[in-house]
């Protein structure tokens, strides 16, 4: 049955209100960004350059690298510096309050961090109702890397322990830097949030749900965020009212086991990630280890 004129009018009015709200959110985001640094300027190897769209090769040459919570990421050449960059483009639909909070969290950490094992931030720009964050480009994330390795190796093959040690040491150094210098802990450590750089180094990324407090405050959190497969038991069972950076230590341990077993999650889960099954596996010791992996 066709909708009444009144119904169509109400629907059209709702669409207009939604569009206005999105535009208002983007404008607010633009104002917030302007307070966080210089729009349209990026710093690469200590040199300032323009990072407006015209500073890069034409958009039809950009290579799509993937999509996330905020939008899409592209690989593009910065003409003046010759640097290959990752450009995260934030779309209007991903500027709801929660997504905006995560976006600004991520931006605040990478903008202020200066560490060999944290992804490098170059600059950001805001034009045509779209935000662009320019960062160093990496070869791939570790989730993709070990997934590809698992397809090319026999079952029960362990990853080289030297690689796992290098990975663990790099992430630990990044986490210590965050805690000591930025009073921050990550809260979402997992293979997908660690990058393999072109020089072979390991880079921690994606700080959208990190916890950051003022220097005089105790670094603790209460919000239940993060991926269930990497949360410690006390958080899964809600046995603690608040938690600290030790949650990242557990997540890193699970991540290293996952790398060592080449993409086979050490805490087996069904597709629906049922919390009860996860807890039973942890309590019963139902963990998967490749036979060749030592328990050092």
Integer-rounded radius of gyration: 22 Å
Instruction: Examine the secondary-structure arrangement and name the CATH architecture of the largest domain.
Output: Orthogonal Bundle
Question: What is the fold-level CATH name, i.e. the topology of the largest domain?
Answer: Transferase(Phosphotransferase), domain 1
CATH superfamily grouping of the largest domain: Transferase(Phosphotransferase) domain 1
How does the helix and strand content classify structurally?
A: alpha+beta
How many beta-strand elements? 12
Estimate percent helicity: 25-40%
State the helix count. 7
Uncertain segments of ≥5 residues (pLDDT<50)?
Answer: 8-25
CATH class of the largest domain: Mainly Alpha
Gross morphology: globular
> How many domains is the backbone divided into?
2
Quick check: average pLDDT? 78
Strand content: 15-25%
Give the neighbour order of strands across the main sheet: 2-1-6-7-5-4-3
The H-and-E topology, N to C, reads as: HEEEEEHEEEHHEEEEHHH
Largest sheet: 7 strands, antiparallel
The rounded distance between the terminal residues' Cα atoms is 69 Å
């Amino acid at each position: 049955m066709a909708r009444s004129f009144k119904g169509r009018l109400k629907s059209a009015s709702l669409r207009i209100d939604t569009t206005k709200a999105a535009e208002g959110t983007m404008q607010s985001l633009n104002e917030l960004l302007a307070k966080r640094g210089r729009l349209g300027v990026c710093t690469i190897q200590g040199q300032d350059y323009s990072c407006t769209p015209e500073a890069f090769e034409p958009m039809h040459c950009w290579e799509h690298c993937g999509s996330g919570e905020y939008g899409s990421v592209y690989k593009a050449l910065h003409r003046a510096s010759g640097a290959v960059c990752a450009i995260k483009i934030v779309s209007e639909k991903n500027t709801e309050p929660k997504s905006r909070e995560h976006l600004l969290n991520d931006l605040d950490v990478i903008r202020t961090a200066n560490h060999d094992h944290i992804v490098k931030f170059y600059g950001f720009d805001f034009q045509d109702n779209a935000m662009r964050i320019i960062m160093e480009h990496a070869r791939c994330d570790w989730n993709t890397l070990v997934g590809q390795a698992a397809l090319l190796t026999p079952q029960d093959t362990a990853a080289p322990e030297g690689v796992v040690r290098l990975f663990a040491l790099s992430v630990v150094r990044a986490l210590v830097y965050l805690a000591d210098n930025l009073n921050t802990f990550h809260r979402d450590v997992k293979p997908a949030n660690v990058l393999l750089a072109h020089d072979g180094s390991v880079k921690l990324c994606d700080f959208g749900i990190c916890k950051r407090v003022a220097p005089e405050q105790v670094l603790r959190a209460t919000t239940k965020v993060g991926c269930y497969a990497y949360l410690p038991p006390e958080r899964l069972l809600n046995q603690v009212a608040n938690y600290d950076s030790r949650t990242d230590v557990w997540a890193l341990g699970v991540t290293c086991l996952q790398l060592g077993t080449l993409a086979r999650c050490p805490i087996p889960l069904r597709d629906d990630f049922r919390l009860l099954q996860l807890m039973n596996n942890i309590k019963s010791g139902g963990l998967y280890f490749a036979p060749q992996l030592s328990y050092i």
